[in-house]
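ERR on first pass: missing label on line 2. Operator R.T. fixed the label and resubmitted. Corrected input:
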Amino acid sequence: MQQGRDIRRVGDGLNEKCGVVGVSLGEREAARPLYYSLYALQHRGQESAGIVTHDGFQQHSHVEMGLVGDVFDEDSLSTLRGTAGIGHVRYPTAGGVNSCCAQPFAVSFKSGSLGLAHNGNLVNADEIRSELEDLGHAFTSNGDTEVIAHDLARNLLEADLVRAVKRTMERIHGSYALTISHDDTVLGVRDPEGNRPLCIGKLDDGYVIASESAAIDTLDGELVRDVRPGELVVLENDGSGFDSYQLVDKENAAHCFFEHVYFSRPDSVIDGTLVYEVRRNLGRALWEESGVETDVVMPVPDSGRAFATGYAEAAGETTADGEQRAEDDDGVEFAEGLMKNRYVGRTFIMPTQDERERAVRLKLNPIRSTVEGKTVTLIDDSIVRGTTSTQLVQLLRDAGAEEVHMRIGAPPIVAPCYMGIDMHTREELIAADRSVAEVRDEIGADSLGYLSIDSIADCLQKSQADLCLGCVTGEYPYDIDGETTDRDVTRPAIGAEAPADD
Amino acid sequence: MQQGRDIRRVGDGLNEKCGVVGVSLGEREAARPLYYSLYALQHRGQESAGIVTHDGFQQHSHVEMGLVGDVFDEDSLSTLRGTAGIGHVRYPTAGGVNSCCAQPFAVSFKSGSLGLAHNGNLVNADEIRSELEDLGHAFTSNGDTEVIAHDLARNLLEADLVRAVKRTMERIHGSYALTISHDDTVLGVRDPEGNRPLCIGKLDDGYVIASESAAIDTLDGELVRDVRPGELVVLENDGSGFDSYQLVDKENAAHCFFEHVYFSRPDSVIDGTLVYEVRRNLGRALWEESGVETDVVMPVPDSGRAFATGYAEAAGETTADGEQRAEDDDGVEFAEGLMKNRYVGRTFIMPTQDERERAVRLKLNPIRSTVEGKTVTLIDDSIVRGTTSTQLVQLLRDAGAEEVHMRIGAPPIVAPCYMGIDMHTREELIAADRSVAEVRDEIGADSLGYLSIDSIADCLQKSQADLCLGCVTGEYPYDIDGETTDRDVTRPAIGAEAPADD
Amino acid sequence: MQQGRDIRRVGDGLNEKCGVVGVSLGEREAARPLYYSLYALQHRGQESAGIVTHDGFQQHSHVEMGLVGDVFDEDSLSTLRGTAGIGHVRYPTAGGVNSCCAQPFAVSFKSGSLGLAHNGNLVNADEIRSELEDLGHAFTSNGDTEVIAHDLARNLLEADLVRAVKRTMERIHGSYALTISHDDTVLGVRDPEGNRPLCIGKLDDGYVIASESAAIDTLDGELVRDVRPGELVVLENDGSGFDSYQLVDKENAAHCFFEHVYFSRPDSVIDGTLVYEVRRNLGRALWEESGVETDVVMPVPDSGRAFATGYAEAAGETTADGEQRAEDDDGVEFAEGLMKNRYVGRTFIMPTQDERERAVRLKLNPIRSTVEGKTVTLIDDSIVRGTTSTQLVQLLRDAGAEEVHMRIGAPPIVAPCYMGIDMHTREELIAADRSVAEVRDEIGADSLGYLSIDSIADCLQKSQADLCLGCVTGEYPYDIDGETTDRDVTRPAIGAEAPADD
Amino acid sequence: MQQGRDIRRVGDGLNEKCGVVGVSLGEREAARPLYYSLYALQHRGQESAGIVTHDGFQQHSHVEMGLVGDVFDEDSLSTLRGTAGIGHVRYPTAGGVNSCCAQPFAVSFKSGSLGLAHNGNLVNADEIRSELEDLGHAFTSNGDTEVIAHDLARNLLEADLVRAVKRTMERIHGSYALTISHDDTVLGVRDPEGNRPLCIGKLDDGYVIASESAAIDTLDGELVRDVRPGELVVLENDGSGFDSYQLVDKENAAHCFFEHVYFSRPDSVIDGTLVYEVRRNLGRALWEESGVETDVVMPVPDSGRAFATGYAEAAGETTADGEQRAEDDDGVEFAEGLMKNRYVGRTFIMPTQDERERAVRLKLNPIRSTVEGKTVTLIDDSIVRGTTSTQLVQLLRDAGAEEVHMRIGAPPIVAPCYMGIDMHTREELIAADRSVAEVRDEIGADSLGYLSIDSIADCLQKSQADLCLGCVTGEYPYDIDGETTDRDVTRPAIGAEAPADD
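pass 2 clean. output:
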């Protein structure tokens, strides 16, 4: 049943929005550094957390549903013995909490033990799984990670570590940033397209591999470099260094631009660029492409803040028409006009039907004096479903805004992400079947401006050919049933704007 | 490393002290009957509980650490859809809480899904695991159950269900009572020695397979019969009946006598005899073998109660010398002399060193008037380490007992149980290297009497050749490294008594 | 509104079914002995637990909802500094969990601090509360205990401790067993009728006052004697002894007979008699009054066990007609015919409507071989609502019992208890408006026998005039609105039996 | 004991850092609006939360330790019946969690029921408590709130509501913003100095009184005005309006300036000024008073953000010397240079000694590219102990900052706050006995600038005579033992700066 396959592929067992880490220290126990790293990566997944270590003789594992701070305590950390290990945090997927897929996934096999922490999504997991089932393998979960683990274990029967990883990499297709522990050896692997981020850091007494450089900072380490697409990195057991093996080469990468726009921490350096800088530059480009002169520009906190800072900066230099500002023209004022209540958490009791409109004000409250009687530009990173944008526009109007203009630091999202990021079906996407003007009307803004794909590529300092732009073009760098691949096509520039007078 | 193997085999992944159940109903959802069954089997395991069901299309699983009442709620039961399923409760092993081994173990493989709930311990799990690892299999746990699941899944690639089970049974050795779900078909399998109990029950609208008949009672069902050693029972999907396949035949069974002495519920019928009746008869035999005339006889609650009832009954009929009681001789008075505090639970804060002696009085308090100035016989089911016995003898002396005689409803435990029951090493066993007189002195009793092996066999209505008596003879019905097998030897009768004047 | 007042008086703020303790040690910290005592008294209340101590300078308090083992941990015990203190456990009342009334109740006032732990119920709390409100007092709860605390605090403004307690005792009417801490002085007070139990124990290094002697046993102490009705006991601060003040004298006591029948631990000595002995003797009397010759006699576990033991003993000596047994007549066999599942706890998911009948079998399962084809006598301590009795009779019939006869170790409960014990309204009581024959028919038994009030008094070794028999006579030793007082009337003997051929 | 009194006064029972709310609706249940209000006020207290309502017949209360989201669920809200009620959130005080003082405090007394929610601290609570104790009152807590409740209840015996409140206000001295429920009438009271904020809001169907206007926004209401110092506001039962009574008049107010600097939400309007505006203006003034030309200016997130925005704005207009910027001089660049990890919560496992320095990087991570090789100005709202400032300066230096200049949006804190705000003793305050230059050296900054008191008053648009400036002057608007009162003195201007070349 084709439909069923589709649903499973994009619903079950996805690990795209996860954080992974691996640590190898010469002398020091790995558990606490892994624990602090996972704290630094907590934004990449709040559903489950886990650590697997190896003490030279035995593998130790502690994986549970919940936040890092709830999953681990002094007792559990103390049982995770050994100077080498890996860790994982996992994002709640649309399909709900799914304990089956908490990671790292740990197995023992003929040649020892394996631990795998996976960020990404395979597009041919079903095929490989099916091949392994034909050979008698039985699986405890629907997850891609178990498929990789079984395949790797099987290859390790007949090949050394590097060749076994190479064989597995040649079989699996899709996105994967992996940290792997083979007994007490820690590995990092990044898929040939480099879709998900992975980087290497140097500590005083060892090395670390992590999804984001912020995890390295947390350990007081130094970012060495990103793991290259198609590269295998093997940390030395004594913490003295690492070996690199370029196992698979592809002409083009397919870095996910959404990591920079939304998913990664602003203080992380991803594929050579600082996320905060990128967002600020995206904000500058947004002004240049579709700036609108209003009394005030304000971010949606916290996601729009870096964009809005850049936008306002650029607005201080040139006018919306691209002219140099006159000396006495202060440009657009930057202000925080929406205050975020940081205490509204999971246990919140939802308002009844007639209290529904109040719900958004519990989370975000407008500062009336910043808004009242003014024309306002609201900056956010992206629009997915559009519900929040609609509520915020209304909120600002209720607070007395004369006009509300919306500017978005990314292109319209028109197609699902098969690599993750919680944008699963076209039905959910407000821009999938609407023009920019229609989206503008739907959310009730006076004008709406998205950023162009060209600017995305420019600000990320990448060629469009080296980015995965599937969600904004509908053309994917992977073969996905029923979707177009972009590997052979020339991409049009999509970025668009719906002015107030549309 | 021989030592290492021994430790692993008897320490990790044991499932001997567990409860299993399987249910197939024509129309009704299986989850709630499974839930109630697990409540009825909770005494067989308090570490974890789990249920696996299958709704004809998909397998559903909910397995967690904790008591049945904590693991399941209305929500989790409602997700366990389907009219067929299996359940499991697991005992905390000596090595501490072990989340890896919570069951049922669920996998999917080429031909569908498998769920396994296992009570028992294989003696050749390492060998089979090793063979499977040679074929590329990777294992997520140290447990025997996963080994059985992988072996069965592999056999199912090439054979139908009955032949696949037969092949697996021919490969695995040791004790196993299994409930298995293969998609929505529920199976029960008992090892060729029938070491662990398993029985079949009939409900109004289906059939149930369970470790003990008390689980059947809970569902208002009727006990049909025990599953026979070496038998496979396959429940009909529509709840209309079951098919039986006698897959392996052995000359002798090796039923665990300790199930009757301690482990099973008194209200269960195990291998044709009611546990309560057996215990009462063991008590009667105990009087006949080693009765002592004292003012009062009292049980250790609750484990010694049925034994003490039988002992006192017999004591009312004949004297300790075996003579008919005189008309005016009331014999030994039965009384509850120790009161149990049922609220002392897991969270109890242990007393400091100098409060230590008070600890036992929190759990068991002597009734002074029953004890003071009297000669007392205390009845328990067995002595393992001897610490509790020592404390109780002292407690009764402190309460004013003139004499304290101890009588035990089982022979001295002189050797480890490799099939389970938490008696792992000879060092822990007070009787392993002590004569009965030495044990008597160690626990401080005036006299000590154990029951003979002959009486065990008589009361269980079994031939000694059909019992596993390893823990009381040191000779085992299985090949265990470093231990003697009893399959070829004639067993001596061991039952013994250390009179007060020894 | 008169009705409202009645409801409040018997519904809110009742403390009858509670346990209290007080400890004064010369040198040792009081917190841990108080903690162990509360464990020993846990059967008297599972809703909340609390300890108040005083270290000579300051009062410390820890009171929470929950079981003793959940309320306290090492941390909380360590903050409860001081060698003197009191403790309390509270029973869930019919009206549901009520955090307002968790105790001990602690206040500070002009002359220092007061802690009160109360077991009992005042009949004039409203009046005294009203008088105190006229003087400006404000109350944080509906509880009697706060009323006593305020009254005592007020009296302490003008009188020394002993006289202040006397004044308060002269004002309050009803049942109260109190432990009180006035700064670091610990007191015990028992109401002039001695309705609720309270006793004094001697430890190696101090003294203890507790609801039941079992708490003293737990601390390895010796029972000195009961606190006398109307007596105040003041423990010496240095643990060297206690002073006694007989503050109020009444001609007659009004001891609650139900403490012996049901509420107290079997191993406690209450008002001079061991509860286990009393229950056994009540069982003997029950045979003598209403014995019926059946194949087997069995207790409802655990409440009926001591009664059944005595009943069976007596049945071994004489026939139901009171004749000496013939030599070859073994009388009625004693057996455990119902097995209790000790794991069915609070979190149990209730069965659906059509599974309802199975619910009782989860808790109590009949042993078929003991029951099948036999005439059975089932012994319990009392019948309140009758629902459990009805279910058990049916259970035994379903298990094949030829006849089921019920014998009860107390008289019919025909009226509410205003002093506690969860028998609040006549509507709930099966015997309130039914003859014994009607109750027999209602529960479906072949015959039903209650014990007479005369036997109650005899076995408790008390005059009926010194007992509170309100719940079995409808005449109370206290003035209760709308009820008859028994202080001036002669009580009829009620004990009754409904034979099978009624 | 004078010392003891001092300690108690500033340690126990303080309610200064709390949030209060009261709601009276004509028809709608009050519980949910109170619940959402408390969410909006959660920043004012995370230790406990509570709601008291009255349904016309009976008072209902639910108060527990914990966050609003954990304390309440659908069940508890549904028991809080009635259209009128009050709520409270409480801050964890230095002395640790203190369940005794969770609020609202609820009592019943002669004339009905009272509920009190208190934000503030009385300076003569001991005296009034002592007077009430002389009259026989007993207290369950050390809290001021219970003292107010008892005093008010006593006054209500002899006076109507308004006069009773007036009498109590004439007796109590100190800071108090109160919401009170007298049966189903809701009141708001603010102390004569208006030390703590309290305001009135209008809803569609009723009125609300709350600590901050953000709570009114959350309910979609409109801010009517602040409650005036010395005013009593009584909400109509039917939600139609409110009555005002100016009960006490003082020449000067003593508004806490720290509410604007740190404690209140930026989106709240307090005493006529929007907190966000005030902070931004304080930032502007900070530039004007002690601006330093550096490459970049960055806030300590989130507390310094509004200050830094204003500071950078002003820096774009004039130079540090107060000159108009040259056309080609962009001034100081504003950037986010420290990223906050919002997931580091309470359960965080503290690093070991040698990991200590890494701890701060878990919470705040520098963005290297923003900092490296640059001169940096770091903006925060205030410095209390100085430990965080020291760590942040070091963090920025480690990240490569050439210079680190610190600018603070408030004057040096030199004296304890007896009205709250967690600045209890001079020993804890880094500026109490240090010059600005010494503080600069202590925290390791290149220069340090505080704001002047004059600017505080200017930006709050208040006379200094109407502010409480005790913590920055050491002179208090209340009579506090051992401290100077400022009511008769002329205050010096303190604001100060320690330049780099000091």
